[in-house]
Amino acid sequence: MGIIEENRNRNHHFFNEEVAKLENWSEDVRNSIKFEIKELDKEIKTCKTEARKLLNLEQKVKEQRIIKHLEKKLADKRYNQYQNEDEIENRKDKLLDEVEQRLKQQTTEIELFTIRWNIV
Predict the structure, then answer these.
(1) How far apart (Å, rounded) are the C-alpha atoms in residues 9 and 13?
(2) How much of the chain is helix, strand and coil, in % rounded to 5?
(3) Among 17, 19, 40, 115, which is most buried by a count of CB atoms within 10 Å?
(4) Long-range Cβ contacts of 34-42 (<8 Å, 24+ apart)
(5) What angle do CA 58, 62, 65 make, to 5 degrees?
(6) Sequence spans of domains, the chain
(7) What CA–CA distance (Å, rounded) separates 42 from 35?
(8) Among residues 88, 51, 83, which one has the least CA distance to residue 67?
(9) What is the distance between the terminal CA atoms of the chain, rounded to a whole angstrom?
(10) In this structure, are residues 4 and 107 in contact, taking their beta carbons and an 8 Å threshold?
(11) For the residues of 6-37, what is the DSSP string, one character each?
């Protein structure tokens, strides 16, 4: 196997490994954020249900403040979800650029020196 073919195989293997890592990482990030968003949604719904049951106005106001805080947190999580999507796309672009650079490698053959000998 020639050096060029070996280099292609190495690059192919590298690309497959990096794509797999990137896909696993991005899936983990997406699932984590989705889980956090679902949990916040549940918590907000629970707080709203409890707030409706309260009779004391002061307690209702206090509970509404908590709900507002949770809703702000939820909005931040959703915003982070879009930022993470952008980061994932940037990493994919970077990987593709790196592989593209590797594909542009050129080989040249240069004669450095010549050895001659005579058998006497």
Answers:
(1) 6
(2) 80, 0, 20
(3) 40
(4) 34/81, 36/77, 37/74, 37/77, 37/78, 37/81, 40/70, 40/73, 40/74, 40/77, 41/74
(5) 145
(6) 3-103
(7) 11
(8) 51
(9) 36
(10) yes
(11) HHHHHHHHHHHHHHHHHHHHHHHHHHHHHHHH
Whole-number Å distance between alpha carbons of 81 and 29:
9
How many alpha carbons fall within 13 Å on the CB side of residue 56? 4
Please report, as a single letter, which amino acid is at residue 56: N
Reported as a pLDDT band with limits 50, 70 and 90, residue 97 is confident
pTM: 0.65
Confidence bin at 19 (pLDDT 50/70/90): confident
* Average pLDDT of the chain, as a whole number: 87
What is the crossing angle of helices 57-103 and 3-53, to 10°?
170
- How high is the pLDDT of residue 1? 62
